[in-house]
Amino acid sequence: MSEVMTIGEPMVNLIADSDETYMEARTLPRQMAGAEFNVAIGVNRQGHSISYVTQLGDDWQGDLIIDYMNDSGIDTANIRRVSGAATGFQLKLPSETDSKVIYFRAGSAASQTTPDIVDGIDFAGLKILHVTGIFSALTPRTYDTVSALVDAARAHGVTVTFDPNPRPTLWPSQEAMIEATNRLAAKCDVFMPGLSEGQLFAGLDDPRAIADFYLDMGVKKVIIKLGDSGSASFERDANGERVETVVPSFEVEVVDTVGAGDGFASGVITALLEGLDDERLLERANAVGAIQVTSVSDSEGLPTAEELERFIATTDRKEVTL
């Protein structure tokens, strides 16, 4: 069994060769996409094993994803193939400020995943389960599937990390999204929202107040991404006092911001596996996120452990305040 497991919807990513409009594109190179897929690549490249749980169609897109995962060292044993539903894909127009993405995933095989997929999972040796708010939002069935997987993982003593990664258009209302996200967050050990996401879900402005909201809920560690300036970690000590750590990010030239949060999450996960303290954990997570924005691909720019170490040692830091 792998050290890490994630569940989500991997997709074929067709990237336009134009930064103006889709109509101007003359070629559409194929890559892979999906928040959880990006995290899986990041974890694997930093030298840790990871298993992917999902459902794919019995089609060329599904074959391509399986082959890519196998070639990348991602465990595909928990991927179910089905007929009658297609594997999702997306079309991306890159931008250093606001990349545009068109999804072709309605009714996809992954969106029809049901909680019984959890029944066949072997949790032996698993240390961390990573989930996001994207797969949870696809349908009520995928939300129930994620919830069932979280419950099963916790019953086996597995640490659960959660990136809310909100997609409001996938929910019937903002209120429904907030309620469902917080219900899932209360089951998790590590919650890692961006600052604006934390403000939305907690209904509070101050990062410390947001952290307290989730720590009071039972979350053990709250990690808040402070835009491109850095990040902060909050937890409670043995006396119940809040302990915080704030670490700046790195100076880089931004090419495309998609996948930065996923890279950040892979840094958190691998740092937890290696027992790094909070300062080094945030340093690593910030570094992976910063490296990711220098690449047009959602995941192909994610660093190996050696590349990450070299980047941290040679790249200037920004300034950050909480």
Provide structural commentary.
- A 9-stranded mixed sheet has the order 5-4-1-8-9-10-11-12-13, sandwiched between helices. It has a 4-stranded mixed sheet with strand order 3-2-6-7.
- A hairpin with a 6-residue loop joins strand 6 and strand 7 (about 100-105).
- The longest helix has 16 residues, at about 140-155.
- It is about 35% helix and about 20% strand.
- The protein has one domain: UDP-N-acetylmuramoyl-L-alanine:D-glutamate ligase.
- It is globular, with a radius of gyration of 19 Å.
- The chain has about 325 residues and is an alpha/beta fold.
- It has 10 helices and 13 strands.
- About 45% of the residues are buried.
Largest beta sheet, briefly? Answer: 9 strands, mixed
Helical content class: 25-40%
Going by CATH, the architecture would be 3-Layer(aba) Sandwich
Enumerate how many helices there are, as a single number. 10
Characterize this entry briefly.
This protein has 322 residues and is of the alpha/beta class. The protein has helices spanning 35-45, 60-72, 133-137, 140-155, 174-185, 195-202, 207-217, 260-273, 278-292, 305-314; strands at residues 4-7, 11-15, 30-33, 50-57, 79-82, 89-93, 100-104, 128-132, 159-163, 190-191, 221-225, 230-236, 242-248.
Write the layout of secondary structure elements.
Layout lengths: L3 E4 L3 E5 L14 E4 L1 H11 L4 E8 L2 H13 L6 E4 L6 E5 L6 E5 L23 E5 H5 L2 H16 L3 E5 L10 H12 L4 E2 L3 H8 L4 H11 L3 E5 L4 E7 L5 E7 L11 H14 L4 H15 L12 H10 L8
